[in-house]
Amino acid sequence: MAAQLIPETAPRAPATAPARLRQLWSQVSSLLKLRIGIIMVLTALAAMIATPGPAPSSFEMAVLCFSILLASGAAGAFNQYWEVDLDRRMPRTCRRPFVTGYFEKRPLWLGVILLLLAAGLLPAAWWLNLSSALYTFLGAFTYAIVYTVWLKRRSWTNIVIGGASGSFAVLAGAAAVDPDLSPIPIWLALALFFWTPSHFWALAIAKHKDYAKTGVPMLPIVVGNQRCAEIVLLNTLMLVGCAIAPVFYGMGWIYALAAIGGGGYFIYHNVLMVGDPSPRVAMRCFAASLLQLVLLLSGAVLDVWLLG
Question: Could you give the domains of the chain?
């Protein structure tokens, strides 16, 4: 049985109140997976701005960001609640708060998570519309239940289907402007659908040994790093094709440059990873996926703001 990597004791409480508050914030951020939540917020906001229709108000954008962040946080907390046994076995996750005991895993947390989800959905339903709230819920449900509970321990398709949670964030932002979704947000949602496997499989190649210890059937464990790198390249080509498609539905040259430039950079690193699927090259490909997404979302926003 794989050795558990949980520290022998939970971290001691810092002596000063400011230090305790910083530690609490760090643990809450980890529990809610705020970095993932911020990515979801940015994708939803970019889709909201890029969707043809009446320009959203600052208040509507704030409501969308709040709703997506809370719903994503609820899904992230449930993911950690459900996966304590897996998190103990990986260096990347062994210091998460349920593992260390900073937060005690108790059934009460399920109630807190549901309240957090409701706190995210209700403002979207009340101040935006029911369609936006529905897509927000589906994003959280896909990550928490479809990915975490149903697929992660059973099938290599876990991240493919679970990755739809990012697509639902795009649709939530677009639906807040126009519930009858137009082609641009649909293509952006498809781009996010293909982005997630390329992004995560690159990380899984880099962390192959860690995932092998857990027994989770991530694609590199099932088919090997070389074959996985080849599949990632094919997937990224589909991602870039979807990312470029909005140009044919009205997006301008700023978006086109961002989609082509960021996509080309990501493909380049995919090709390097096919030639050398080592952890070092895979982590560079992983970083390239983040840059590609930032360029794509920034291009969508700037295209609308500067070119109208």
Answer: 27-179 (1.10.357.140), 182-308 (1.20.120)
